[in-house]
Write a structure and sequence with these properties.
The protein is an alpha/beta fold. It contains 5 helices and 5 strands. The protein has a 5-stranded parallel β-sheet. Helix 1 packs parallel to helix 2 (about 45-50) and helix 4 (about 110-130) crosses helix 5 (about 155-165). The longest helix has 22 residues, at about 110-130.
Amino acid sequence: MAPRISICEFTTLTASFEEDLAAYAAAGVRGIGVCEVKLPADGAARLRRSGLTATHCIPAVPSILPLPPMPGPETPAERVEALCAGIRRLAELGPDCCVFLTGPAGGLGPAEARRVVLEAIPVVAEAARVAGVRAALEPVHPSQAAVFSFVDSLGAARALLDEAGAD
């Protein structure tokens, strides 16, 4: 029996979705973390044929606030709209969850960034609920806070979700 592990496509960014499916299956894993930016229009059918299952999915716009290293909408409202659209698209893969980040505080400053994210989390959670998947807020290592997220621990993630009224 294959071990219950998965590989996230972020580890093989230069490979295509089809190449990832083949390589991960050949490695004997059963799951794949799907990046929407790599997902072709017929991705759900390809995934089914591969025998792998989607463990988690990452929308093409994965954060509420802008991420310096990644292109995407500039305003939080546009980003939340794109994030929710990504969750709806990825739901067809039947993942355990769709992962999202807060994004770094950037020029907003910590208090304003937190306020914006607190307003957005219920919107993201509702989009996931309607799509039939879980939304998962991913904390990052503290060294990456200025790049990916101001949430840098499980405790900070739980506190933010509690404050937003999300579970």
